[in-house]
Design brief:
Its main location: membrane. It is a multi-pass membrane protein. GO terms for molecular function: transmembrane transporter activity. Keywords: Cell membrane, Membrane, Transmembrane, Transmembrane helix, Transport. The chain has three domains: about 65-130, no CATH class; about 130-220, no CATH class; about 235-290, no CATH class. Helix 3 crosses helix 11 (about 240-275) and helix 7 (about 180-195) runs parallel beside helix 8 (about 195-215). It is an all-alpha fold. The longest helix has about 35 residues, at about 240-275. The protein has twelve helices and no strands.
Length: about 290
Amino acid sequence: MSEQPPQPQGGDGPPKTPIRRTELGGTDRRRQAQDVERFSPISSTELSKGPAELSVDVHAKVNWRVFAIASFIILAFSLWAMLTPDTAQSTLHTVTLWIAEKLGWFYVLTVTVVIGFVLWVALSKEGKVRLGPDHSRPQYKLFTWVAMLFAAGVGIDMLFYSVTGPITQYLKPPAGEGQTAAAAQDAVVWTMFHYGVAGWAMYSLLGMAMGYFAYRWGMPLSIRAALYPLLGKRVRGGIGDTIDIVTLVGTVFGVATSMGIGVVLLNVGFAILFGLEQGLAVLSQQVGYIC
């Protein structure tokens, strides 16, 4: 007689062992390992890894790939505009008209969504979250911050376009006949659209995103760091470099526009007050002094 295996004490019976699929002629189901790199961080614990993941080499101060590509785009565009100004003006005018006609709805929708989001942040409990640590306090007073917003931000544009904007829209409106009561009303509406709540909502969104992740989470002060919760570790690679290149090119041309307007205003003002001549040479000297 074969020897029976000892039965365990108690009435529970032998422990049940799970049957493997291979014993029934099947194959093991193996779950594919999830690619962690493709998932975006969604919790505060994962967000806390951002500074370390975005600062692989703390000694590297310049991203030379971003710098080289952005510099090439800026120089190429600038040379094209300087060597063939008529062609550049015609091309940019055509592109602007196409964007206004085909993508105007997208701009209006985007601004509307941004205004709603910024108002929600301001009026909800999220608006009480500090951009820095909980114990931090503003470095400057409210009046000082407001003064810096205008002096280092939109001050030049508002000084120039607050007058020329309504007049231009009144004389040559985008739609309808100019120099009418309706054109005057539309001119004020367009001016407020550019420099009213809509513009400040866009500035607020970018400022909140960069300030929150830079000063509260210790991430680099860049657009790619602000998009870390959406893109995860992918912001360290080519996607992040592309974001920085687009940001750098847009920033340089934006600052160049403001500087160009400001220099022209200075040149005209100095000509009226001190009798200085107006011309490209004087404008170039003023740009050099400012830089």
